[in-house]
Amino acid sequence: MIKITKSSDPLLVTTLTTVIYGPPGCGKSSTAFTADSPLVLDFDAGAYRSQFRKDTVQVADWADVDSITESDLKPYATVVLDTVGRALDVLTAALIAKNPKFKGYGGALSLQGYGALKSTFVSWLKLLHSYHKDVVLLAHMDEQRSGDEIVERLDVQGGSKGEIYKCADAMGRLQFVGGKRVLNFSPSDTAFGKNPAQLSPIPVPDFHTEPLFLAEVLKSIKGKLNEASASSLAEQARLDEFKASFEHLSTPEQFTEKSVELAKAEPKIKALLLAVAETKGFSFNKKEKAFATRAVAA
After folding, report:
1. What pLDDT, on a 0 to 100 scale, did the predictor assign at position 18?
2. β-pairing, 56-58 with 38-42?
């Protein structure tokens, strides 16, 4: 049976997929270790370089992570892929080994192979969320020149960039501004970004004094998204009240009287009154500024 979420029901955000990217040496791995109870899947074999290292899985083959169970992840709240580009490379090798038809020209994936890569990876992310885990995807930054500008992009193979962008709830880049690190979720003309909570650029602190930096950032994003959801529900409830009151009107005169009463109301309230009137066979005459029974075509 299909599960329907009614308009009056809250849609609470409990897990996020967050992409964090930046140039080498900007502290992506160390930042990820400040997430809430993280488990890092180390595809790049570089976790040892972080002085803030926590529990890590050294991944050599996709089978190492494909077999992860809910029980394995029970002690953790966040799963980190370091890096997502390398993870997709490992998944690509596994797919080609399983089905040689996925191998295209020059060893790259065929079109069918790319389809399998996207569907397999997205399904795996959904599985992690079904375990109630946040997912952080770390990515290297690739600089490309566009005229006189340097354009920042994810260093991820082929069409997979688009899939990463689509599956991300939030996307931020670690960058240096005035010699200090900041985490910036806002997109620009030359950089990717997703900023659903409209956060300002966040100064990156000393992780010795703020060891839960990323945990607090993700908590803030969830909080703001849930505030927006609650606000939308309250607004919908308000509109439903207006609509219910309009449904009690039964004559053109009553609708006209109500329109006068709502002369200074918001446009959406007036539009709602008009919509209800039309369902009852009335239309608004702008010249007369009054409702009347809609004429029936002969």
Report:
1. 96
2. parallel
Report in angstroms the alpha-carbon separations of 57 from 88, 114, 127: 16, 26, 18
> Which residues does 138 contact at the CB level (< 8 Å), separation at least 6?
19, 20, 21, 28, 29, 32, 80, 81, 82, 83, 84
What is the per-residue DSSP string for 230-263? HHHHHHHHHHHHHHHHHHT--SHHHHHHHHHHTT
Is residue 1 domain-resident?
no
Do 116 and 186 lie in one domain? The reply is: yes
Compute the distance between CA of residue 271 and CA of residue 276 in angstroms, rounded to an integer. Answer: 9
**DSSP character string of 66-97:** HT--TTTTTT-SEEEEE-HHHHHHHHHHHHHH
**Residue among 172, 113, 106, 105 nearest 137 (CA):** 172
215 and 270 in one domain?
Answer: no
Contact 181, 34 (CB under 8 A): no
Verify that 161 and 257 share a domain, yes or no.
Answer: no
User: Is 183 found in the same domain as 133?
Assistant: yes
- DSSP, collapsed to helix, strand or coil, labels residue 124 as helix
Higher confidence at residue 269 or residue 143? 269
Tokens standing for residue 248: 């009690």
> How many domains, the chain?
2
E strand or H helix that includes residue 142? strand 134-146
Measured in whole angstroms, how far is the alpha carbon of residue 216 from the centre of its chain? Answer: 17
pTM (global) more than 0.85: no
Least confident of 4-13, 29-38, 60-69: 4-13
For residues 88 and 197, membership in a common domain is answered with yes
Residues 12, 23: Cα–Cα separation, whole Å: 33
